Amino acid sequence: MIGDRVKKYRKNKNMSLTELAKRAGVAKSYLSSLERNLQKNPSLQFLEKIAHALEVSVNLLLEDDNQQEEVSGEWLEIIQDAINEGITKEQFAEFLEFQRWKQEK
């Protein structure tokens, strides 16, 4: 359910319901209803606001949980190490692009 995924990503960001509602510019009561699966069909505009505040894609909120691969603790450590070393998202994206190019050759 969409509400379960919103709640999961909110908790992963250590964000309260109030904080997410404020950052997304949405009603806390509606967000709470969504997370409790009382609201099942939020508008795309609502989901875009939530996704932006959570820094995830709308597609990630819409995907079936069975299709998503969990990020293991080891991956999180690698990512944190990269951040600690000062590697930017842009540099990491360039590295991935180079790796894809290298595999094609």
Task: List the keywords.
105 residues; mainly alpha; 434 Repressor (Amino-terminal Domain); 2 domains; elongated
Summarize the structure in words.
There is one protein chain. With 105 residues, the protein is mainly alpha-helical. The chain has 2 domains: 2-67, 434 Repressor (Amino-terminal Domain), CATH 1.10.260; 73-104. It is built from 7 helices and no strands. It has helices at 2-12, 17-24, 28-35, 44-54, 58-62, 73-84, 89-104. Helix 2 packs across helix 4. The longest helix is centred in the C-terminal third of the chain and has 16 residues, at 89-104.
Helix content: 55-70%
Q: How can the largest sheet be summarized?
A: none
* C-alpha geometry: elongated
* Backbone structural class: mainly alpha
CATH class of the largest domain, named Mainly Alpha
Please give the CATH architecture of the largest domain: Orthogonal Bundle
Poorly predicted spans: none
The tally of strands reads: 0
Count of discrete alpha- or pi-helical segments spanning 4 or more residues: 7
C-alpha Rg, in Å?
Answer: 16 Å
Order of helices and strands: HHHHHHH
Per the CATH scheme, the topology name of the largest domain is 434 Repressor (Amino-terminal Domain)
Q: How much beta, percentage-wise?
A: under 5%
Going by CATH, the homologous superfamily of the largest domain would be lambda repressor-like DNA-binding domains
Head-to-tail CA distance between termini: 41 Å
Number of domains: 2
Q: On the 0-100 scale, what is the average pLDDT?
A: 86
